[in-house]
Amino acid sequence: MARIVMKFGGTSMAGIERIRHVAGLVKREAEAGNQVAVVVSAMAGETDRLIQFCREASSLYDPREYDVVVASGEQVTSGLLAITLQGMGVNARSYMGWQLPIRTTPAHSAALIDAIDADILEGVFSENGIAVIPGFQGVAADGSVSTLGRGGSDTSAVALAAAIKADRCDIYTDVDGVYTTDPRIVPGAKKLAAITYEEMLELASVGAKVLQTRSVGLAMREGVAVRVLSSFEDKPGTMVVGDDQIEDYQMERQLITGIAYDKNEARVTLTGLPDKPGSVASIFEALANANVNVDMIVQSVPRAGEPSDLTFTVPTAALAQSADVLEKLKEKVGFNEILTDTNVVKVSAVGVGMRSNAGIAAQMFKALADRGINILAITTSEIKVSVLIAEEYTELAVRVLHTTYGLDDNGETA
Amino acid sequence: MARIVMKFGGTSMAGIERIRHVAGLVKREAEAGNQVAVVVSAMAGETDRLIQFCREASSLYDPREYDVVVASGEQVTSGLLAITLQGMGVNARSYMGWQLPIRTTPAHSAALIDAIDADILEGVFSENGIAVIPGFQGVAADGSVSTLGRGGSDTSAVALAAAIKADRCDIYTDVDGVYTTDPRIVPGAKKLAAITYEEMLELASVGAKVLQTRSVGLAMREGVAVRVLSSFEDKPGTMVVGDDQIEDYQMERQLITGIAYDKNEARVTLTGLPDKPGSVASIFEALANANVNVDMIVQSVPRAGEPSDLTFTVPTAALAQSADVLEKLKEKVGFNEILTDTNVVKVSAVGVGMRSNAGIAAQMFKALADRGINILAITTSEIKVSVLIAEEYTELAVRVLHTTYGLDDNGETA
């Protein structure tokens, strides 16, 4: 017998037919003798509909009331899944965030989970019952409804798994696992049997949006074993676990686990930056104060006393704001121009294996250079090498790197 | 300064534009110096949509989970109205049924309000705030969400008005008040400035569905002054008050306040009923046990020892079930046939004035007989005379009686 949290996303809950299918999956786990708690998202499209209502009601909507409105989507699907399970003869009941309770910080519309009371759930398990819990929502200390921000349902599921010391947190979604890269670009991309938290974080932040980044970070801190799998196809999925458990799933690790890409970065170049102490620092300080997340940074090496160029990337969504911030600094810092380019893509190779293996970056640069792909910027971390290139080379670069790192084999990795 | 509960129905809350209009009405009352609590329904059609989901999920849905699902409709509109009011610079906040709390019986999907805690609301009023409260919902003693059944939002509003000792409960709806009869049948029907609780109950139960019957009964018991008015037109509406207050609104009462009709009755006739003690009683007992509400009853006077015919009416919706119940009694009680007729209408004249005035019923019978309209059954109460006639005469009978009782004057009653 295992204790399992099962989480179903919006497409899995979109309509009664799909909810009935989900109920079948839940029933199967319960009949296998497992203790099951289920976390559900709102029906696909419903949260957007509710957010749109709030925006129309007032452009400066109160996040406290916004939470009251948008939390209703998960309330509906929780009740409907409980009803459906009962109709199949399964002893199920829903518990809202304020009923358990799921205690959060008071940061409405972007709350963090403080604690989840497991008492009610332990009672449900002891009576062989199944609890259905709305994701995304909780209750603040003042008794008001709170929500965790978009995609928060994954985080709800992982936090719940930690609270009840679940053996596993199964995240059912509309893809059947984590692949070595985007199968739309590389048809031979393989599904990974397992991946570490850190690799998943790097892959998620660079574009493989299977699991919400925040939930992966929480799973890593709490040591929750997460499985990503499809609610539409009966396939094994991908385990997301710690470095110490990864060997339970893979006899031998590849050096590189996957190739990711992210088109949501924009390049900014400041030309003619004077060679003065503190001028670069003042630029990044101003951007940080505006909550702009700067990623890749390249500075041309100036001859002493001569101006240089500074290039960096920001999220495309923050480009206009960044330009505003920089425009105000122009005179004070004394650079010439602000050049921007949104036709760029960040391509990354991610893998825990590269820690113990030099030459991964060099391999990447050579493979891209051989295809005449110009590298605009580079960043590296312990388990990731990323390059910024022109967007038109996205598919070519991903395919080349997928092959370069030996990920093109047939079948799934063992 | 007055303390007012304002309640808005589903058509008044159907979409952001209408909610914005509602917010304007609320703001006006607040700016006039009044203390205001607002009770809202779900958007028109939303509750039906949610109920349909529950039915599709399982034909035998758990009413506890049904309540979780359907209560979400009012949660959404409460939050949206609070947001809209805030956007207009009004200090507003929503409070769910479980937050106030509005305590109810545990009869899920048909709960009764036990008590409403006024503490939070008194705090809101003392800070010149406006509370927005979802109608239709509350919380049971075990902490589960409960709902009051269809149309329960009117009841929520009246109960809230009683709890906070409001001076008035304004029910905003899509009609602008209570009329002497259906204006679609009698274009000269007049809007009543005021009506007593009892008259309203009789008019509601016979077809003038402006206010939910249950809320009128509660208003009568608690002495809550209710005003029915349109949220779409800026007109005075109709006050619903006690006998002792009615004179504040009308110098002189008409004998008859209004003419109502109800097509949702079906006639049942049992022929050849043996003249045995207890046979009639056994029939009505069986129908009562099946929760069928028998209304008008006529028995032909038999010659001693000879069989007679028994005629009565039941709600059309309960006709099939009634026929089943009666079929089972046929042999035991020994009647011949069960004849049914759904092409009938109940037409009623209602008025507190008839208490002190004989001859109202006789006037009705003569007016109908003069037009050749055959009366199939009669019931009377202290303030109502009803007749059952063939449905094809509905409009003729309503017009004739409206004229007979002098309701055809121009303008509104004073």
From TrEMBL, chains A, B:
Stored Pfam families: AA_kinase (PF00696), ACT (PF01842), ACT_9 (PF22468)
Similarity-based family: Belongs to the aspartokinase family.
Protein name: Aspartokinase
Top-level EC class as recorded in UniProt: transferase
UniProt domain ACT: residue ranges: 268-352
Binding site for substrate: 47, 74
GO cellular component: cytosol
Keywords: Amino-acid biosynthesis, ATP-binding, Kinase, Lysine biosynthesis, Nucleotide-binding, Transferase
InterPro entries per the UniProt record, alphabetical: AceGlu_kinase-like_sf, ACT-like_dom_sf, ACT_Aspartokinase, ACT_dom, AKii-LysC-BS, Asp/Glu/Uridylate_kinase, Asp_kin_monofn, Asp_kinase
Gene Ontology molecular functions: aspartate kinase activity; ATP binding
UniProt-annotated binding residues for ATP: 7-10, 173-174, 179, 184, 209-210
PANTHER family, alphabetized: ASPARTATE KINASE, ASPARTOKINASE
Swiss-Prot/TrEMBL GO biological process terms: homoserine biosynthetic process; lysine biosynthetic process via diaminopimelate; threonine biosynthetic process
Protein EC: 2.7.2.4
